[in-house]
Amino acid sequence: MTRAGVCECEEAVSSLEREPMMRVIAILLLAAGALALVYGGFSYQRETHDATLGPLKISVSENRRINVPVWAGVGLMIAGGGLLLTRKQVQ
To answer: Which of 37, 65, 72, 75 has the fewest other C-beta atoms within 10 Å?
Structure first.
């Protein structure tokens, strides 16, 4: 077998290995975009102060919210859809 034939086989195998990974990434991007559009962001709790006075323990936690812009959610969905479509066209 010639060296060119070996290279073509190696490229075909490596592209087959990348296909499932690209599909997973595309689906994750679509899901993240949909969640960003539905929820508009996420919130989390952050403990800011702790104090212990004898048997009493006092802690203060603060709720924070991070808003995800609509354009980011739409962009994620477009990127995921683009990956799925280009993957199908390559095959």
So the answer is: 65
Say what the pTM is.
Answer: 0.61
Q: What are the residue boundaries of the structural domains of the chain, listed by start?
A: 3-90
* Pairwise CA distance, residues 69 & 36, whole Å: 8
- CA 79, 85, 90, 91 dihedral sign is positive
- CA of residue 53 relative to chain centroid, distance: 44
Distance CA 90, CA 77 (A): 20
pLDDT at residue 1 in the model: 47
Within 10 angstroms of residue 27's Cβ, the number of other Cβ atoms is 13
